[in-house]
Write a structure and sequence with these properties.
about 325 residues; 14 strands; four-stranded antiparallel beta sheet; alpha/beta
Length: about 325
């Protein structure tokens, strides 16, 4: 079975800025595939290339076997694209926006209503309201309805949950799971690490490069370090002092706690507590925890930075 999306050595520069650096990946038919990374990682550039809205500088990409440059007209007929910024017509009503997109693709709301029913029914009571007056969650549902109205084979969703509340985020991902059961391939990007666990596979992307592609379970299982969650009365001083611990591999803030990674069997919780108390910390708590996707991302990013420093050092010699 051919893949829904195939990308080989794709690169894109904006002047001196490398937005994408020869990235390669594939997405299987019916897969829910996530790109996880911070702002500026290259996610939007990639999605715009796959949606045939931007030309790459080099490399190749296909969607359902069609080449993104040569076959762009065919691709636009079989994909749904939801950009990160709300881009529907603010001065049209909910229903007018949906009818407009249905008409563009030669269909009607009535013809494909069953496909969007579960999503659109939540905003249908407000169908006469102008799109610009909707809440963030309702705009999100309208944009997804418009992206689905022509029954696409592949959905590209660029940070669809950015700027909406936690309840709307959860509802949106439940909708994506239901769409997946209909056989639609979904490629989604997000800066929220917790959403990675909801994908079949994820690509961790930073500075235009893909650092790892795996299932969420495999990403976490591959974490090479031991990990402690550490708290004390002074989080800022805690972060500073933990970096002085000889056995520390990395220290990052996670809310009101510090995540301390260390080489396995290299240090115990009691040793960390004793070290912190000797440096003046009070009410110290140390708990061994399992890594999250975010811990894994930070570890990969740190390894990538160290590799770049070594390469730069050799180049300067």
């Amino acid at each position: 079975m051919k893949n829904a999306v195939d990308v080989q050595n794709l690169s894109k520069n904006y002047g001196d800025t490398e937005a994408l650096k020869e990235i390669s990946f594939s997405v299987g038919k019916g897969e829910l595939f996530g790109f996880i990374g911070p702002d500026g990682a290259g996610k939007t550039t990639l999605f715009r290339i796959l949606a045939t809205l931007l030309l790459a500088d080099s490399g190749a990409a296909t969607v359902e076997g069609y080449e993104v440059v040569k076959d762009y007209k065919k691709i636009r007929q079989i994909i749904g694209y939801m950009p990160g910024r709300f881009s529907l017509y603010q001065d049209l009503t909910v229903e007018e926006n949906l009818r407009f997109f249905a008409t563009i693709f030669g269909t009607t709301i009535e013809e494909n209503y069953e496909l969007i029913k579960e999503i659109y029914s939540q905003i249908e009571p407000f169908k006469t309201r102008k799109a610009g007056q909707l809440s963030g969650g309702m705009k999100q549902k309208l944009a997804l309805s418009c992206a689905l109205i022509h029954k696409p084979e592949v959905l590209f969703l660029d940070e669809p949950t950015t700027g909406v509340d936690a309840v709307s985020r959860q509802e949106f991902w439940e909708m994506l799971k239901r769409l997946k059961t209909m056989g639609i391939t979904i490629v989604v990007s997000t800066p929220y690490m917790d959403e990675a666990a909801l994908c079949d596979r994820v690509a961790l992307i930073q500075d235009g490069s893909i650092m790892q592609i795996s299932t969420p379970y495999e990403v976490v299982e591959a974490y090479p370090m031991g990990l402690f969650s550490v708290t004390s009365t002074d989080i800022y001083q805690l972060l500073h002092d933990l970096q002085k611990l000889p056995q520390a591999h990395s220290v990052f803030a996670f809310g009101q706690a510090a995540h301390l990674s260390y080489k396995k069997e290299n240090v115990t919780a009691s040793e960390v507590i004793r070290f912190l108390k000797e440096t003046g910390h009070e009410d110290v708590h140390v708990e061994e925890i399992k890594p999250t996707i975010e811990d894994c991302f930070m570890e990969l990013m740190q390894g990538s930075e160290q590799a770049n420093e070594r390469t730069s050092g050799r180049a300067d010699k």
